[in-house]
Amino acid sequence: MAASTAASRLSPPRPRTASPPSTPPRRSRFSPLRAAKMEAVLSVGAHVIPHPRKAETGGEDAFFVDSDTGGVFAIADGVSGWAERNVNPALFSRELMANSSAFLKDEEVRHDPQILLMKAHAATSSVGSATVIIAMLEKNGTLKIASVGDCGLKIIRKGQVMFSTCPQEHYFDCPYQISSEAVSQTYQDALVCTVNLVEGDMIVSGSDGFFDNIFDQEILDVIAESPGVDEAAKALAELARKHSVDVNFDSPYSMEARSRGFDVPWWKKLLGAKLIGGKMDDITVIVAQVKTVVIPDDEGSGVEQEQGSELGTGAAVVSAE
Length: 321
Ligand SMILES: [Mn+2]
Fold this sequence. Notes:
Blueprint (H helix, E strand, L loop, with lengths): L37 E12 L11 E6 L5 E7 L10 H15 L9 H11 L5 E9 L4 E7 L3 E6 L2 E5 L4 E3 L2 E2 L2 E2 L11 E6 L5 E5 L1 H4 L4 H10 L3 H16 L7 H8 L6 H5 L12 E12 L6 H11 L4 E4 L2
Antiparallel strand pairs: 1-13, 2-3, 2-14, 3-4, 4-5, 4-10, 5-11, 6-7, 6-12, 8-9, 12-13
Helix pairs in contact: 1-2, 4-5
Bound molecules: manganese (II) ion (MN).
């Protein structure tokens, strides 16, 4: 049987708990002394596969990728429990991403994903809630991350996962989330991380529907085999999707569910059965590769061009199709 739990992803009010910030050493590999004319940028690919039953409406995940400022991307996962209150769960996540993209022009948020989240949340008028992750690459190679809930981000260097965000949750299957309701998490609850990246590092970010259905080793294998970020994002999403509908796949989600005490009834256990299966959900994957570009003497102009050609598109809000 497919893994499932009775727990709703719609959270009841809980006391707010600030997450301890994680601040790795701030030693940049793109220091002005070593490379005065180099800047870090991201080459980004993205792929979305909606929940099988939500294919017509595009699902409830939303994301955006922005090539200006060196590379910003974000994912929001609309909490599906709102459908029980006759609210379209996609509206909140999509508006949050549209607002996040719009606020990138605001000087105050250009270097702080947590402030971007604060402003985008405040500007969002739709009813609903969402988990969200925002990542910003600075020109010196510093990646800044703010995450509320269980969207994830991993950094792969030399074929190994060298960094992963941790999910935040109230209880199993009920992640922290920002909401239209006053009682919810806010930007102040965000997990905030800063990681110094080097050229060639790969970033793999996704909604919970991705990470619940794929193991780290599979991510590493796909990244190693893929010729580019677009192909990698597509292949990763498709592998997660395949697992998500496989009732015999012992997914990270079903393993986690068992570790939390969810399982098949005792009499089935006696027959050797256990709770396994993928988790059907919207699947969003963003793959980004860190590159460096050389700044010509008339500082700045050449970078914009190169970013444009690498990233393909400028700011765009995209939801699942
Ligand atoms: Mn999800």
